[in-house]
Design a protein that fits this description.
Elements (H helix, E strand, L loop, with lengths): L3 H9 L7 E4 L18 E4 L3 E4 L22 E7 L2 H9 L5 E4 L3 E3 L4 E2 L14 H7 L3 E4 L11 E2 L14 E3 L3 E6 L2 E7 L5 H6 L5 E9 L3
Parallel strand pairs: 1-2, 1-5, 5-8, 6-9, 8-10, 12-13
Antiparallel strand pairs: 2-3, 3-4, 6-7, 10-11, 11-12
């Protein structure tokens, strides 16, 4: 199965030259460490930064430089700082080419639930609602099953919905899935995982691509 770092590395392979990319909290933040050589992208952090770099090495952290998840980060040449109003103006105007988000649940129609578990205290939705409503392309980085071993790729989400029919692709520890009119489509799988196991752990509608291959880096 893929590690969190490998999930991020696989998603980084989706980045295209010239993209403006927003990375959500959790696994998505790791994507900054795996941008392919020769691919020039601009990472946006919704707390007011264009030009986010990889995580700093231990001992080189600057407490004044943080991402939306309050993790210390680095900047790159040409980085720009601004207020949240301008940041969300960029998002709402559709200037972000790709958003990578974490999720608690995704269903086979592309609905995402990623901000609240009823009965548990949360700080708020943050920028998730704006991102799922405005991004041109959304990829989800998530664990395929919960701590009880139950599928998080569902027929219907049970948690409060963040956005409807907005997710285009999912990368989990088990594989890579497109979402289309037939539900989840498995297009790549972890090398040490069988198709039968993935089917067992996927509650929502699942088809297998005729061009299925193992994930390689």
């Amino acid at each position: 199965m893929l590690s969190k770092e490998q999930i991020a590395q696989r998603i980084a392979m989706e980045l295209k030259d010239g993209y403006y990319v927003n990375l959500g909290i959790g696994i998505p933040t790791l994507v900054a460490n795996y941008i392919p050589a020769g691919v020039d992208v601009v990472l946006q952090s919704e707390n007011g930064l264009l030009g986010m770099g990889p995580f700093p090495f231990e001992g080189e952290e600057n407490a004044d430089l943080i991402n939306a998840g309050k993790q210390t980060i680095t900047t790159v040449n040409g980085s720009a700082f601004f207020d949240s109003a301008m940041s969300f103006g960029m998002i709402r105007a559709g200037k972000v080419d790709l958003t990578v988000l974490g999720a608690m649940e995704v269903n086979d129609k592309g609905d995402i639930a990623n901000w609240k578990i009823p009965g548990k205290m949360v700080k708020g939705m943050g920028g998730a609602m704006d991102l799922v409503a405005s991004a041109k392309n959304i990829i989800v980085a998530m664990q395929h099953v919960n701590k009880a071993g139950e599928s998080k790729l569902l027929k219907e989400c049970s948690l409060p919905i963040t956005g409807l029919a907005c997710v285009k692709k999912i990368v989990t520890e088990l594989g890579v899935f497109n979402i289309n009119e037939n539900g989840f489509e498995l297009i790549e799988k972890a090398a040490d995982v069988s198709v039968e196991y993935i089917q067992e752990k996927t509650e929502g509608r699942l088809t297998i691509s005729s061009e299925l291959k193992d994930i390689t880096f």
